[in-house]
Amino acid sequence: MKRRALLTLSASSIIAAACDRAVADKPQLVNPGRGFRWIGEFENAGSGNRDDAATLQRAIDYVREIAERSQDTSQLPVLLMQSGRYALNRTIETAPWVKLCSVGGVLLDFSQAADDCNGIECRNETSLPPTLLRFPGSRSPFLDGSGGTISILGPGIQRAQGWGVVMGNRRPGYSGVVRDAGGRNVVVSGWRGALKFDPINVYLSSWISSRFEQNREEGLYVDLPISQRSINSGERMTFIDCTIAGSNRAVRIDSDSMDFVFDSCSFDFNGDVVYFDRSARYGTVSLHHCHIEGIDRLLVDATQAGANLRVNVENSIVLPRRWKAKGKPNSPRRLVSGSARFSASAVEWRFEAPAQNPALPLIGEEVPVEHISGLSFQRIPALAWRGSLLNADSKFDSDPVGMQPGSLTHWNISPRSTGGLEFAASDANKAMEYEGQSTESRALVLRVAPGASTMTIRNKSPLAVRVGQAVMATCVADTVGGALAIDLSFEFSDDLGNSIKTDSNLEYPSRSLPVARAVVPPGATRLFVTAQISGASGRIRITEFPVWYAN
């Protein structure tokens, strides 16, 4: 037994030593069409000057020539990059079936390249047939840092105009496609954007355990192609265990038919997280088990895009602390806007300061919400969504400045104040803050008559309601001196105006989130909502009085 163990040990030692020598010597393989080749084998020894870009491109072209000569990508050698720095001063062009693999940590350094230079362009503008195996050489990362991270460093976020990695063809008509291609253990920093997709024949892309961070404009960007539409692109673009951080927009999509899946990813300190540009018309972005932290603007911005887009967030954490605007509190604010359909399930929202305007929902009322369930809030509660408003004039912008109390189109006020009623542009009102800038918002300004202890405001025309629906309302008001007490009541009636129920045992202002809620009782079809305001000191400013369905 001892002799057999000794022989086994000796054999293992010999094999290990032989492998070590093989790695050290970087040999020319007997059959160059199989196995692996070291990048260093393709150096131009006679030039006298080391040119890493030329060396790397020669190695890639060598594998490309084998594939084109054999019309097959199933038996190609991989290209091994020894650990170290490779100074690259121009774009490297490759294909999805050319495998660049690291042996140790590899730095592809484009810091001295031209400002408009891209780093690595992965295209498949060839006439290679798919074969019965359907592009077999593509089914693994074309950038594989499993043996040590591959870092792609750009010219710097201040001056770079290119992207670290570009995928997709430039023109339709080629039989080659960029499918089943992606990266593993790759870091891309110092560019205008990290990863750009040209949406022509690019799909089934997968990136694993990679970081796209510290790039000026975009972490991931889907460009608008020359054809003005996506062609055979966008199916299941998958990111697993990735970090997209430190960019103006984490994900920017300016094309149609793109479907992204993010699983166990982090979106840290970005302006917008998901931004749909003007040419995005349909497609889906799904975030599962993600951590989202540091948002200067919006979690989802679809204000410029089409109506057939979807965003789904589930089993995730959102901590919308500001990134660059550190002076602003982490309080509930608008985080989803525009026309994209939205759903959220089991999402934990983490806020650290009270809402500046409790009537402002996290999800804009214009957003078509598919479903919301299982939302939780850490420390500070927030209004998730207001749905469609029941009252037409919740922000008091239907009447001109100077309108008297008895002439308002949608509201009755009692008692009338001796100072009359006026509308004013409110500089102090920050409820309409959007993209870091204050948007001027009108407010209903009332001067309280001497001796008047209370004042009421009530909708003039009844609101149509449906039995069994939960109706919600809030009134946002303040005064110059002292604190206001605001009590809300719901008065339900039938079509003939017969009273069905008056619900005045509501939640405002006893709870930290001052929203009143009631369920429409059987037989009720109409609703009046009344706010009774007391504690005013000469002047009351009401910025909003919305009524909406809870779901």
From TrEMBL:
Coiled coil: none annotated. Residues 1-18 form the signal peptide. Keywords: Signal. SUPFAM superfamilies: Pectin lyase-like. InterPro entries: Pectin_lyas_fold, Pectin_lyase_fold/virulence. This is Pectate lyase-like protein.
